[in-house]
Amino acid sequence: MIKKIPSLIDMHIHLREPGFTNKETVETGLKAAIKGGFGAVLAMPNTNPVNDDVEVTKFILKKGLPFKNEIDLYPVSAITYGLNENAELVNFSEMKKAGCIAFSNDGLPVQNKEKFKAALMKGELILSHLEDETNEAISQIETFREVLNLSKKGECPIPKLHFCHISKKSTIEVIKKAKDEGLKITAETAPHYFTLTKKDIDKTGRFKMNPPLGDIEDRKAVIEAVKNGVIDVIATDHAPHTKEEKLKPYNEAPNGIVGLETAFSLSYMRFGLDLTLEKMVYAPSKILGIKPKKEIQVDLGAIYIVRGKNFESKCKITPYEGKILKGKIL
Q: Which of 109, 119, 235, 237 has the fewest beta carbons under 10 Å from its own?
């Protein structure tokens, strides 16, 4: 059955350019996103140089211009210069004016409480990559509360906090408790956390990402959290590497898998169309204050086999190689 749907929004991808064009470029990443049904993507700042400067933002946006009719590219700024939590905060107003939609230190989270507090006090959307996932969530929610109280006194704008790539049952419980108390925080997961577990891991880096895959109880908790709204968004955390890197022994391989070209099907097969659109279009649209780019067509009945060699992404290594999926973006 062919159906028109709004183009998807991905709050969390890595385009690798500038600096790591052997892994991905803005061009190949956006082509992968378009093929996957996305009309808007947020590109993380862990590039080289880091996106902590207006000129880097301008460079990324210029690279995306040839695709402007198909997809909107939103750079994410670093929170601190060089992604160094001990460095100064970037110039938030200048980075936003240049085109950055949110702020994140990516896989180098700001664990310095005062620095994280200062970032939240800017009133801009902070995308928090939790590494020591549950403990950092506890700490950051406590800091969020403090800043929220300051904002109620008129001392700063209302803070905005979004948790990236949630994977663990214990973290979900922490976020649920905070939401039940009325805290307006948001959270995302990625398809690999509701389709795979650590039992799927092989000897290579094909299944290696951070946070790592959990056990079956974690996977069940993620599924339930998507259904009950504790998790607001499904993002991909598309993080490409070279074939040579991903096929190294597991302990030597870098973290990160590709996801743009399989995310819709994996989500649709697990949650159905309505909930998939809520998590991949409407919720991120509301959080970010942007509208879906356009309408796209999807064949909900189409069944296909995942073949990494056919990906638009430079990275052809996928944990879903050979898997049979349903629901194809046309």
A: 109
What are 308's two structure tokens?
A: 């990494």
> Cα–Cα distance between 29 and 58 in angstroms, integer?
17
Could you tell me which of 289, 295, 268, 262 has the C-alpha nearest to residue 7? 295
CATH number for 13: 3.20.20.140
Q: How many CA atoms, within 13 angstroms, populate the side-chain half-sphere of residue 177?
A: 12
- Residue 6 has what pLDDT? 98
Which amino acid would we find at residue 328?
Answer: K
200 flagged as catalytic: no
In angstroms, the CA 56 to CA 309 distance is 31
Residue 308 lies in a domain: no
Read out DSSP for 298-326?
Answer: EEEEEEEE--GGG-SSS----TTTT-EEE
**Could you tell me the residue range of the domain that residue 49 belongs to?**
6-296
Model pLDDT, residue 108: 84
- Is 49 part of a structural domain of the chain? yes
Q: Rounded to the nearest 5°, which phi and psi values hold at 181?
A: -80, -5
Catalytic residue, from 52, 237, 274, 299: name it: 237
Low-confidence residues in the chain, pLDDT < 50: none
60 within some domain = yes
Question: In this predicted structure, what is the pLDDT of residue 109?
Answer: 84
Into how many domains does the chain fold? 1
Ranges of beta strands (E only) in 138-198 are 160-163, 186-189
Q: Is there a domain that residue 319 lies in?
A: no
